[in-house]
Amino acid sequence: MPLNCGIVGLPNVGKSTIFNALTASKAPAANYPFCTIDPNVGIVPVPDARMDRIVTMVKPHSIVPTTMEFVDIAGIVEGASKGEGLGNQFLSHIRQTDAILHVVRCFSDPEVIHVAGGVNPLHDIDIINTELLLADLDTVEKRRNKAEKAAKSNSATAAQKSELSTIVKLADVLNAGKPARTAELADDEKPGNVDVITRQPKTSSSETIADEARKGYDLLVIGIAKTRNPNGGFSKDVSLITKGFEGPLAVIDSHQSNSDRSTERPGRILIPVNGSEVSRRAVEVGLTLARANDAEVTALYVTGNANGGNRKNASRRRVTRRNELAVLKDIGELADRYEVNVRSTTRVNMAPDEAILRESKRGYDLIVLGVSRRPGDTLYFGNTAAAVLDRSETSNLFVAS
Ligand SMILES: Nc1nc2c(ncn2[C@@H]2O[C@H](COP(=O)(O)OP(=O)(O)OP(=O)(O)O)[C@@H](O)[C@H]2O)c(=O)[nH]1
Ligand SMILES: [Mg+2]
What percentage of the chain has pLDDT greater than the value 70? Predict the structure, then answer.
């Protein structure tokens, strides 16, 4: 669902002018207050450099950028919540939007009328905020009576009780002149259920992504700032986003700071392989990235401890060696198809996580690791992936089918 954004402010401050600039529309914008009465609506595609970059890599058949809807709302004046100007008409239009864009006049132009007497941005901001706050207080007080009766009846449900406690907390902050979003609500107290304007976002961004992901996608790619939990494993946000998503996952654990973003192209990519389906998938993803970034790839063959020095294991080692040759041959053929140069290397007598961590110190920009998801509330890809996540100093991309 595209987001929508309501444009609010005093009359004649330039809301429709900004709306026209944002949406390339021709809504009337003229030098008299209340030029806009019925809201103007415009929908625009949202440009995104990250999407452009993905498009150059995967060359999709169609590209559908997300959109943003702007709603240019009638001007608000002092006393609007009590019926001044266009009164409460504007409120229903603001309540239907996800975000509020507050336009404040800072230009001085004697030709353009200022409804509050003179240009004073701080005072103007205050007028609008106060009107929104008073409108919210009105809404909350209207709901309070009904909520009190419902919560105090013998058959009151938990939802009815939490609605009343939400309303009481909202009324307290609004009466103290603070916006509804400053109320400290418990997890089950949802301001979204009480239709206030100065509200908090209904959910955290991780929950919003998780809700969207559950609708069913063929691949969920997660690239967020905090992927690691300081006590080990993936962060709470990563687990929250992936909870309930059952399809293939790609989790990017970036070790670059924001200021490094311009040099984000990986130049050397390490792909641990062992012949499993998941590691082959990681090879395909790694080769795709390498081709798009003109990067070098090293395939690291890891075998667990089957290569151990025990002489009795000689025949097992021969099987392993055959497996290694078959895997590396397969990668060589894939690399030819992707037109990427691949170097291969093997580390013997070493657990896979040790082998990967040791090799990763040789100046790689990215490790692409094929993994399988294990059941549970927190995201867990097994011991090898956990060790790489906790200890590697390189950025990682975990690819799970
Ligand atoms: N000098 C100057 N004039 C501006 C600027 N922005 C808007 N205006 C003028 O201000 C007047 C009002 O602009 P609108 O965009 O209609 O303002 P509005 O906030 O939509 O007004 P209402 O719909 O009446 O609430 C118009 O004559 C605009 O040309 C600006 O940045 N500088
Ligand atoms: Mg207007």
Answer: 90
